[in-house]
């Protein structure tokens, strides 16, 4: 729709973004770990609005309200709004990806783009829309959607009545059980707990996020901020899994623990999770200390030979 409406194939995305891994969307994703070896990024430009001259024409501009797969990356204040203005000045359309940030997850707003004081031309959403049932939606204006009249188009599963009923019910539950407020209040509590762990452990270089969308950056040390090696990150994830806490990872180096709990998470759940992180980080510290001691003993033995 964005390309048809603007009449321009040139699409802009950001480095580190994730917008899907299908044949159609892989070209919009700027993380090499999600690429298959075939051309998928034709007329897609990554990282800079400078590609288009001030008077130049451009098509769609995609952005996440908070980068999810890239490690819960938040934008500088005013960036998304300024980018949207620049895109529209060049005849483009702004498409916000709310798959991870939508449906109250950020706490302060129901949609992530509201936190940027921007109303997109098109918004895409899924996952939280029907609580796990396969459902997604594209929302736009009648004017933009009308370009689809230029050819016959249909979706075999589009408008599935069961999916629509589930999505409608989920919206009611979010409102009735005040789950957006839960994400805001417990999200702040969660981040405060993670901040204490950051101060306690050398491997925690940063904690960040908003509502129930948080990230823990794992590093070798706080001074260099060098990404924790992949094997060590996986060991920590295994420890968490053995404690029955599932956690994702992200970022270019794969060293960001991604925390996006269910909106129905309770304070007891958060306390349990914080305890799991505490123990997993302590286990890592003990493993490293043991390895360093063993390495020192081997060096001494070698020197005495």
From TrEMBL:
Q: Name one GO biological process term.
A: glyoxylate catabolic process
Which EC class does it fall in?
Answer: transferase
A single Gene Ontology MF term assigned here is:
pyridoxal phosphate binding
- Where found? Mitochondrion
Query: Could you tell me what reaction this enzyme catalyses?
Result: 3-oxopropanoate + L-alanine = beta-alanine + pyruvate; 2-oxopentanoate + N(omega),N(omega)-dimethyl-L-arginine = 5-(3,3-dimethylguanidino)-2-oxopentanoate + L-2-aminopentanoate; L-ornithine + pyruvate = 5-amino-2-oxopentanoate + L-alanine; glyoxylate + L-alanine = glycine + pyruvate
GO cellular component terms, alphabetically, are: mitochondrion
UniProt-listed Pfam families: Aminotran_3
Main localization of the protein? mitochondrion
Task: Output the InterPro entries linked to this UniProt entry.
Answer: Aminotrans_3 (IPR005814), Aminotrans_3_PPA_site (IPR049704), PyrdxlP-dep_Trfase (IPR015424), PyrdxlP-dep_Trfase_major (IPR015421), PyrdxlP-dep_Trfase_small (IPR015422)
PROSITE patterns, per the entry: AA_TRANSFER_CLASS_3
The UniProt keywords, alphabetically, are: Aminotransferase, Mitochondrion, Pyridoxal phosphate, Transferase, Transit peptide
Cofactor(s) annotated in UniProt: pyridoxal 5'-phosphate
Quote the EC number: 2.6.1.18, 2.6.1.40, 2.6.1.44
Q: What does this protein do?
A: Multifunctional aminotransferase with a broad substrate specificity. Catalyzes the conversion of glyoxylate to glycine using alanine as the amino donor. Catalyzes metabolism of not L- but the D-isomer of D-beta-aminoisobutyric acid to generate 2-methyl-3-oxopropanoate and alanine. Catalyzes the transfer of the amino group from beta-alanine to pyruvate to yield L-alanine and 3-oxopropanoate. Can metabolize NG-monomethyl-L-arginine (NMMA), asymmetric NG,NG-dimethyl-L-arginine (ADMA) and symmetric NG,N'G-dimethyl-L-arginine (SDMA).
**What family is this?**
Belongs to the class-III pyridoxal-phosphate-dependent aminotransferase family.
PANTHER family, per database record: ALANINE--GLYOXYLATE AMINOTRANSFERASE 2, MITOCHONDRIAL, PTHR45688
User: How does this polypeptide assemble, per the annotation?
Assistant: Homotetramer.
Protein's UniProt name: Alanine--glyoxylate aminotransferase 2, mitochondrial
Origin species:
Bugula neritina
